[in-house]
Amino acid sequence: MSYNTIxxxxxxAVMTITINRPKQLxxxxxxxxxxxxxxxxxxxSNTAVRTIIITGEGEKAFVAGADIKExxxxxxxxxxxLSRSGHQNLFxxxxxxxxxxxxxINGYCLGGGLELAMACHIRSASDNAMxxxxxxxxxxxxxxxxxxxxxxxxxxxxxxxxxxxxxxxxAEEAKDWGLVNHVTFQNELMxxxxxxxxxxxxxxxxxxxxxxxxxxAGQVDGVNxxxxxxxxxxxxxxxxxxx
Length: 243
Ligand code: HXC
Prior knowledge:
Strand content: 15-25%
Number of strands: 10
Number of helices: 10
Bound molecules: hexanoyl-coenzyme A
Shape: globular
Radius of gyration: 17 Å
Oligomer: single chain
Strand order of the largest sheet: 1-2-3-5-7-10
């Protein structure tokens, strides 16, 4: 499939998805969300792809948020639907992929952009990256999983601080908070993500998929993560990779 707002490339078992709206700082509009959803599904179903890296075109932004111009006039029902469909079609999809997803955060990573990065399995950032959740300054709240995933990553106190101040933090501080795993120079960011991808690719893709399922299970209401781990551990013995 050809895309208007993203670029997709597969090299050496790594699918790189680049959000390609640099003039709008890669803001996520409806078309971008639909195209990302399609590309992630294609990556998951392609057995040659062992890791997916997502980044933003240009040096200025990973993603500066959801496209504000698209929802400026929305009603309550339209707002709810924007959020619900985004969760379902992209953000929950990414988190639940069995193919590991690395966010390579190369500049502004705000609002829905940070929510997308938080749905990924690993986050690496360039030293010029700026992270934040400006939603309450616009009179809305996070709608793509940010209230939940930020709390899981950094704890309730820090999550509420970032949400309520609507401020931005630099990459190093985000690393201190546990919001990103690694920080490097901008010109080394993709190399770092690719190195991580090749380390992951040495391991069993089936086992990695099972581990992602077990880790994610602990965040689901009413699901006992330890029980899921027991099940997934057992399942691993039935895979060709183990044999
Ligand atoms: C649409 C955006 C955008 C966004 C930037 N642009 N962010 N367009 N949606 N989120 C556009 C600008 O309108 C402008 O287009 C161009 O990108 C460059 O932006 P500037 O503001 O001129 O750049 P700069 O002065 O360097 O400031 C960078 C910035 C600022 C600090 C990142 O752009 C900014 O504050 N953007 C909004 C960030 C934000 O509030 N994000 C959260 C959105 S809410 P033109 O055509 O004028 O040149 C959200 C909710 C998610 O994400 C949940 C939904 C369910």
